[in-house]
Amino acid sequence: MSPTDARDEWLHTEMGASTPTTITVAGHDLAGELMGNVSLSQLAFRFVAGRFPTEAEARLFDAVLVSLADHGITPSVLAARLTYVGAPEALQGAVAAGILGGGSVFLGVAEDTARFLDGIVAGVEDPSDDELRGAVAEALIDVRERGERTPGLGHPVHKETDPRVPRIYELATELDLFGPHLRALRIVADVSAEQTGRRLPINGAGVAGAALADLGFEWRIIRGFTLLARTAGILGHLAEEMQQSMGMPLWQEIEGRSTEA
Fold this sequence. Notes:
Elements: H1 3-7, E1 16-18, E2 23-25, E3 28-29, H2 30-34, H3 40-49, H4 55-68, H5 75-86, H6 91-100, H7 109-122, H8 129-145, H9 164-174, H10 180-196, H11 204-214, H12 219-243, H13 247-258
Antiparallel strand pairs: 1-2, 2-3
Helix pairs in contact: 4-9, 4-11, 4-12, 5-6, 5-12, 5-13, 6-12, 7-10, 7-11, 7-12, 8-10, 9-11, 10-11, 11-12
């Protein structure tokens, strides 16, 4: 390798490249091999994992993305709709506004849960239920001492059961993808109830983070998948906003109330 080649190595990407006659994506001919043969979710999996998913992995991965796509009139949706009211000529601004709030309360919980569970799973030599239970107990005590919420537990609407959770567990079991992170999360819910006397449900973002971790994804990239999924939902809300605005009357209602004597 010449000094020039070595200096320019950082310019190389495995994601894709173009010539005047071809487009290569993830090492495959885009038009000839990928288009019509793989789904967007399979390609997203390939981009991050460096390989295409198995049939079982693709099914669980799709289920996770679908579970995160929309959850009603959330703050991110309101941000997107109100931004569109102010700048209908810039759809990208409304989409961006909708995903920028993916943090510790909404969407970011998947990443936080995966990171929390990673610490538990990595701390045991044998991820049996008994070993995991001991590690979970210590981790939960540490969380409470820091005054933090337990990642993956609790939901503002679903007080008993988040309907997404049993379905992900069912699919993971059926597809033989029920791994240590999903097992640890279930134990987290049980041990938390034992320690506090109050049972909090596992939430959809938490189970999504656990499932993605069991699919082999590092916690640092998992929030990206939640944003990928939620972008589809935001687009749906913006399409609806174009036909029947919620943002404009919402702004007018708040404006009117704030100026009342």
